[in-house]
Amino acid sequence: MNRWTRPEGDCRLAHARLLGQGLRDIWLTGDRIAFEGPPDAPVVDLRGCIVMPGFVDCHTHLDKGHIWPRTPNPDGSFQGALESVAADREARWSARDVAARMEFGLRCAYAHGTVALRTHLDSIGPQTGISWPVFAEARDRWAGRIALQAVCLVPIDMVGSDAFRETADVAARHGGVLGAVTFPVPDITSRLDLLLRMAAERGMDVDLHVDETQDPDAATLREVALAVLRTGFAGRVLCGHCCSLARQPDDAASATMDLVAAAALSVVSLPLCNLYLQDRHAARTPRSRGVTLVHELKARGVPVAFASDNTRDPFYAYGDHDMLEVMREAVRVAHLDHPVSDWPAAFAATPARIMGVKAGEIAQGAPADLVVFPAREWTELLSRPHSDRLVIRGGRAIDARPPDYAELDQLFAPEPAQA
């Protein structure tokens, strides 16, 4: 049971513990935060419990989520994930199916305290015309609760085709972000230049899956940085995964990271999914953690975020769009402690800036979107899942709970007959 009274209106949250700042009082005034307020405001004594800003999840796949019960990964491999998702997409991804799973994922994220979220959308063939309108409807429906963005997801060797140009136009019409999966192809230089030029022409930011592999010879992160420097692209560029960077010789990795910093790229690490998929071999213990060089990138001034990525699909069998879970595992996997420093920003303020949304901060005049945990120090925060957390949105406590998995049972029934 929570140890505090639920705030139901304007009040003062007394003795709130802000990570890295100690104890202070916070006033909830309307839907905003203040650090000074009326002395006679109702008091909710948090007794030193940790208060964090609403989470920002800048790399997810809502269109893939929760297909595991009907289409699991046969062997836990990356190739098994690709083939399983492709088969499920071809057979089952109707507007009804995508909308139901997307809504389920958003309800999970909202209940856990996420205020902004970016999803990638498989944008290949007819799926483009199905998933983007479904996303647009969800974005409108969730406005004021979760700020939603979407990225088109295609292989880099599709860039330059008429199909990619059509996909880029669809994404642009829906206010989306231009994306692709980069991997070594002979003409990657010209393809990246074209992608950036198309993004600039349409006023779009760019979000790329980059080097999601343990192969040290996969070095397209360097190519992305060089392309941005070469073209002078002025929009935001986010690179996800970048796993092979951690497998490369130190001098090569350092040179690439210097270019990443010079090109003002941002990087998001996805530790849960990459731990699950990478360095997996039958009857062999994995050696690699699947995370990129987050400390070294951050030391160069590169904005570094963490995100949830896939949820209960062939790329990751688990997850619940809970950014506290992502934080707990990222701290363990990537050693985001000793000292903790400002790493908590990588789950809120930093991804908010990457996305260009106003969220993820506890500051004067900021939205009163907070998550209160029954924990008084770092180890208490990260030692339990805290399903009893208190989520405050717009200055009011919400009573949202993650949806029941049984609600997804409808997705395993036959599609209704067309009239």
UniProtKB/TrEMBL annotation:
InterPro entries xref list: Amidohydro_3 (IPR013108), Metal-dep_hydrolase_composite (IPR011059), Metal_Hydrolase (IPR032466), Metallo-hydrolase_Enzymes (IPR052349)
Keyword Hydrolase attached: yes
Top-level taxon: Bacteria
Pfam families: Amidohydro_3
MF GO annotations: cytosine deaminase activity; isoguanine deaminase activity; metal ion binding
Domain Amidohydrolase: 43-91, 192-396
CDD domains, sorted: Bact_CD (cd01293)
GO biological process terms, semicolon-separated: cytosine catabolic process
Keywords: Hydrolase, Metal-binding
Coiled-coil ranges per UniProt: none
NCBIfam families assigned to the protein according to its UniProt record, in alphabetical order: PRK07583.1 (NF005759)
Name of the protein: Cytosine deaminase
